[in-house]
Amino acid sequence: MSVLAQSFAMVFDPQVLLVMLLSGAFGLFVGAIPGLTATMATALLVPITFFMEPIAAIASIVTASAMAIFSGDIPGALLRIPGTPASAAYVEDSYRMTRAGRGPEALGALLVFSVIGGIFGTIVLIVASPILAEMALKFSSFEYFWLVLLGLSAAIFVSPGSVPRGLVALIIGLVAASVGMDNPTAEPRFTFGNLDLLGGISFIPAMIGLFALAEVFRYFVHGHKLGAPLRPSTKGMLRSQIGVLRRYPKQMLRGNITGTLIGALPGAGADIAAWISYAMSKRFSREPEKFGKGHVEGLVEAGASNNAAVSGAWIPALVFGIPGDSITAIVIGVLYIKGMNPGPTIFINQAELINALFIVFLLANLLMIPLGWLAIRASTTILAVPQKILMPIITLFCIVGAFAITNSVFGIILMLAFGVLGFLMEENDIPIAPAILGLVLGPLLEQHFITSMIKADGNLLSFFERPIAAGLGIFTILVWCAPLIRRILIRRKEALT
Amino acid sequence: MRLGDRALGALTLLGAIGLFFASRQFSPIPGQKYGAETLPLVISILAGAVGIWLLVQGLATERGAALTTTPDWAREPAAWAKIMAAIIVIAGYILVSDWLGFTISSLILVAALMLLTGTRLLTALPVALATVIVVQFAFGKLLLVPLPRGEFLSLPW
């Protein structure tokens, strides 16, 4: 059997298809509930994926995350509350359209362009990642060191909010990453005599705490009071999109490209992609005055962009093992556990798994049309589930999930500690994503640095001696200097005017 | 409570100093310049720089302002009580689950959290019971997670 046929057989296994259907429904549900994010859906799924075959596990995460990003649009259009942060950019437009009786057009556009964006991102993933992987085969620890550092830096400068607060988050993640014996001299670091900490901070309980439990705590203090949602209609929902597609082909394409690129940038995911695409759409529109007042153009571009970002984020994750967003940060952990070590060699050694992953991506995005349609029809029921009942149930899932990873209460202790930490971070406007990247990339940074230094006998200049490493190094340093350069340019401009 | 840039900067700087001294106890790989102390040392230098950055930024922009600001929710004792109670309930689960077993301790956990969110007892109890049975079946039976059986009642499976 050829590699491709093997991959198809892996995906079209009834068990994998059933997992995709169930995960899709789960993703749609979590995404549609305001306050629960796509990352949370992924974090809650991980403990269950431990008990699945590799492809079923990946299929489950891919389907759930893509569906959650789309379904976050539904409460936006019906309640004016975005289901996930990725839907926040265009919530005003979609809600006003629904109020004005154009609900089917708005929801249809969000569904159809999410699918198109997701498929575009997948095609780029299919085409670009093997090419990048071939290039990455020439990489040694020097290049990887710079790539990891670039990933960490991009996470800071791309995430919204203040740069120093983003750096504080990164420091928190790096400190957590340095706990345990997994270091060059296998000395116990920051374990305070605790035997459980010798193995380091287990990533999954930390993620569940930071993303899911912290949200539960936020609910306890802020509450999410939902009003009565508008009644959705699906009549002519998909058909009306042919006209929209004819009117805005350029916007769709721009959203697809921007979303994929931003997704591929380490640390930046669907949330940022949607905001940037919405801003670009308004900037280049012939009718910018209509934006925010119930105009479909922004929905086309930003709706496509956030789903394209979901696929784009997998490019650096698969090729370099560097997550493109917080979802792929979790995915990398799952890939390692499933024996699919991310990196360029995965394309050679496990070609059938990679092909199967691409097929899963395409299938998950196509599945979004029927499942999304059903979710829109069922949205009034989904939104009627009271959060006061949902949050305690999520807490129990967090506890069982954290326990399942370590098979001891230590996982739950870690999750609780990170839940409190995540809550405090959000209250202080310290973003979570850089902390996650610090936790994932910290060990890689240390490993590549030490390996390089052993090779070069401690000569730091060796990081600039190989051409690609030098290029990456200079680029990373330029990224660090970017805010300074921008400030100088602004001052000079002000002085001139 | 939201820390202003000055307060967060001072805290980061303190952390940096602590981390710097803590990193001194680790040693490099024999015969090499670098080792287990490198990463914590680099983090401490980065944290020191970020702390100073925040302090300088805070001194420039927060002149006359308080070091910390209190968000609206933090002025309500009920909100504090709720979040503390939620943490205590989860910590309680950690402490007693081995002894009480998953069934009883998670039933208490879910029901207590539901009461905290304002669900009525008559709704909370049956929903909590149904949730626990489903979770125990899914994780304990299907996924074979060794949920604590406890010394008390545990479901037949």
Automatic annotation (TrEMBL), chain A:
Hydrolase is among the record's keywords: no
InterPro entries cross-referenced by the UniProt entry: DUF112_TM
Annotated source species: Paracoccus litorisediminis
TM spans (from-to): 16-36, 43-70, 106-132, 144-177, 197-221, 256-278, 313-337, 353-373, 393-424, 436-456, 468-485
A Pfam family the protein falls into: TctA
Domain DUF112: 17-437
Protein name: C4-dicarboxylate ABC transporter permease
Keywords: Membrane, Transmembrane, Transmembrane helix
Parts forming coiled coils: none
Automatic annotation (TrEMBL), chain B:
InterPro entries, A to Z: DUF1468
Keywords: Membrane, Transmembrane, Transmembrane helix
Chain ranges passing through the membrane: 38-56, 77-96, 102-122, 127-147
Residue ranges of every copy of the DUF1468 domain listed in the record: 10-148
Name of the protein in question: Tripartite tricarboxylate transporter TctB family protein
Species name: Paracoccus litorisediminis
